[in-house]
Design brief:
The chain has 151 residues and is mainly alpha-helical. The protein contains 7 helices and 2 strands, in the order αααβαααβα.
Length: 151
Amino acid sequence: MRTLGNILWHIPFLGFVSAFITFVIGILLTVTVIAAPVGVGLIEYSKFLLAPFGKVMVSKNDLNIERNSVWKAYSTVIMIIYFPFGLIFAIISIFQIVGMAITIVGIPVAIVMAKSLGTTLNPVNKKCVSVAIVDEMQRRKAAEAIDSGRY
């Protein structure tokens, strides 16, 4: 089913074009160095757009990825500066999701856009991972909750 969703995303809706444009914008922002955290997030988002029905965007904090403390502080500052732009992009995306969900043919695009709404709002410190990794993370958190009696 994921393969069919990815095919529908790419063939009639030109999802690869969205992925390419996002990748180029991410590269341009990364080259400026000042907006590098947003650029890196957009590059990860472009990976998601290549296979949106088999991937998920996850915060690096959830993945327990070690990061440099200076980069983490700088990313937080950039995230705060980017927030008004991300809010505008997220509101525009919500209108697009509603418009696409009305039509039967547009439902796959609406699903992809709804899955990526959090990344549209804030692409900083996000990582594109497989659905299997997210399932395993949720399984481990559930087992941890059961073991500690927090269920």
